[in-house]
TrEMBL record:
Residue span, Aminopeptidase N-like N-terminal domain: 105-188
EC number of the protein: 3.4.11.2
Record keywords, A-Z: Aminopeptidase, Hydrolase, Metal-binding, Metalloprotease, Protease, Zinc
Names of the cofactor(s): Zn(2+)
Family: Belongs to the peptidase M1 family.
Organism: Belnapia rosea
Enzymatic reactions: Release of an N-terminal amino acid, Xaa-|-Yaa- from a peptide, amide or arylamide. Xaa is preferably Ala, but may be most amino acids including Pro (slow action). When a terminal hydrophobic residue is followed by a prolyl residue, the two may be released as an intact Xaa-Pro dipeptide
Domain Peptidase M1 alanyl aminopeptidase Ig-like fold: start-end pairs: 446-549
Residue stretches making up the Peptidase M1 alanyl aminopeptidase C-terminal domain: 554-873
Name by which UniProt lists this protein: Aminopeptidase N
Domain Peptidase M1 membrane alanine aminopeptidase: 228-440
Amino acid sequence: MQDSAPQTTYRADYRPPAFLIDTVELDFRLDPAATLVRARLAFRRNGPGPMRLDGQGLALLEARIDGAVLPEARLGLGADGSLTVADAPDSGMLETLVRIAPEKNTELSGLYTSGGNFYTQCEAEGFRRITFFPDRPDVMSRYTVTITADRARCPVMLSNGNPDGSGGNEDGTHWVRWIDPHPKPSYLFALVAGDLVDVHESFVTKSGRQVALNIWVRRGDEDRCGHAMDSLIRSMRWDEEVFGLEYDLDVFNIAAVSDFNMGAMENKGLNVFNTKYVLAKPETATDGDYQGIETVIAHEYFHNWTGNRVTCRDWFQLSLKEGLTVFRDQEFSADQGSRAVKRIRDVRGLRAAQFPEDAGPMAHPVRPDSYIEIDNFYTPTVYQKGAEVVRLIHTRIGAAAFRRGMDLYIARCDNRAVTIEDFVAAMQEASGVDLSGFMGWYDQAGTPELTMEDRYEPEARRWVLTLRQAVPPTPGQPDKHPVAIPVAMGLLDAGGAELPTRLAGENEAKPGTRLLMLEAAEQSFTFEDVAAPPVPSLLRGFSAPVKLKGVSQDRLRFLAVHDTDPFVRWESGLQYATALMLQMVAARQRGEAPGFDPALEEAVRNTLRGAEADPAFAAEALSLPGEGFVADQMEVADPAAVHAVREGLRREIGRRCGDVLRATYDALAEAGEYRVDGRSIGRRALRNACLAYLVAAGETGLAEAQYAAAGNMTDRLAALSLLADAEGPAREGPLADFHARWRGDDLVLDKWFSIQAMSSRADTPAAIRTLYAHPDFDLRNPNRARSLIGAFASGNPLHFHAEDGEGYRFLADAVIALDPINGSIAARLVGPLGQWRRQAPGRAALMRRELERVLAVPKLSKGTFEKASKALA
Ligand code: B3K
Ligand code: ZN
């Protein structure tokens, strides 16, 4: 239980800061146990109110204004760690000296040590753990940073901006100075120091600026930086070409660290990355890892303009930078390879994480109204749904107007901390399109449901489509209003050919996909000159993040084969299979043995026949809907039944299509040099999809052989994850081999933990406990904690939802142990217990009990308190 109820912050309470800080001079004397931080802040009054500086866990040694020591009577230290200075003048220089202990910082927020080196993480509110400061994004300042440390311990010392001198001292220390010419909020401050080596390149911007690119890693990791560097260079070029945005400093540094709470951080000129999103070579990284690196490198780089140069007024506007930057990294990746496959993967991710969030206890708008702990709002809703909303605007106004809107947004908002309204206003002005109907997407939580109905009028040769929308109620938002939904669509004739379309009132028919705008709760669209009943293809490219209802199984089957839009082809197959699986689950629950739908066999054969053209697409089309996705469609989830049905289908497909699966598997055997390009990745994905079906049908030996022969991590891991479900030596041998081979490599060892955590074997609940006690398990390392606890709770619905509640108990035990070490990670991991409303009463009661047990812990972190209490509410 909390000592006092944590405070809620409301968006409506925003007030401009009482003081601005124009320049910041920071002076660090680094020491793991006792680092001294001297700060000189040039302040200036901006509005009413006292001078209040945020702080957390800082030992204040000295405070002066304009050189004069401030007596204790003028210094108010708040219970939250903040500092209030009484009778501050309207402008002046505030100087403080504080002491902090980086080596004791297990939260990994503020300044901390990892492997003996120093790193910072300041977003959202970590800078206050380094020095006293108005730690809010609307205070933008120019920073000069001087770092002094032992020369042997910290040969490399980095901060934001450009280097501005260095030198030695007689006591064995040395110093460096960094000046960042661009004003920035405190959350973008960074410092990295230690024994690091760099991999470097240079880049010439389109206007001719020479930029030194460095990736800083620990000695020995230099051979794993090539893909990150290549991705960085491609991102820099792409942003110039597509958005006209150029890099604005002389150096761009990336430092990789293995203890890191998230993926990466976009600090100005000094990105700090989780090693997971930097280090890769074929033997250690999967194709998925390579793609993750490309995405995250691009994302952080793109923040330089969307986030850093133009930043957020307050944290409620977080999606202003995150949604827009995810949209930009999605577009970048789409341009690197297959746009359709990229879209499919993004939609898969959205449905796996964001749709459930939007339907659960933590549902919140893309722009939330309140929070207890802002760290809890770095969510799939703010990121992925936020990107979808930017995409809606892009779809509505078109690429050219969107680019004009971006130009206007940046010109107008450069070096400012702004709001989502500023972004939408720029798009509206540049396009001349009224975008007010899109604001509901930012302010309402919940996934809209779109229902379709149609009728054909033969005499009038007319086809009428009626679309209805409804946004379900979410916590704190019982009533919703309609939003603007762009529906990209087309019509097919009975033979599958695309028809030109003419809406009533239009003069001539248009070929191909067109955009319908649904802006009311219900709207009908009348199409003229339609010779025969057409088959509609709706939401092409997933033109809006909604749930589409009312499409018959017959139409889905037809669209899965014939639609001209690859997304709808994939989607129709997925929806068809989902409906089928739900029927099979229902049959099973009635005690009937569900039959096999021959359409699935036909679909698999059909997919494999055309696979050569786009193997990555074929791999997507082959994979059955995930267990979580199917369970999400049920009123009351039944994870065990869903698992049984899905496994049964996989086995049956493997048996019936064994001939073509095997032929494809053999034909795709890697020949020649291993490559990480789109086509090679697609071929491996397809081959491993075939392998999974073949193993489901009993061909375990194939996976054993692949494991033993694999020359790259993608194939090795694909085989191992199948073997992890097997019985006896087929499993134990490879798992032991994998551990022995990679025990010195943290990122690879994470995979070893995850694979076992996600196994469907009956002994997994016991195995989880054993792994938790394994000498290689370390709760303090976020990647390791996620690799076991997160992989189990989010990636193993069968065992997480075990009837006896053991899965829930394990998660709660882990969260309780982790909370005092790293509350931010504990809060992230507790989430799955919030799904209790959709479980049967017995399981729901067990889940609630574990949430109550978490909440009863003394001194629970704010973040875990918020997640657990909202989950129970
Ligand atoms: N902006 C950071 C995320 C910070 C998370 C703080 N809890 C990474 C990103 O979105 O690019
Ligand atoms: Zn981001």
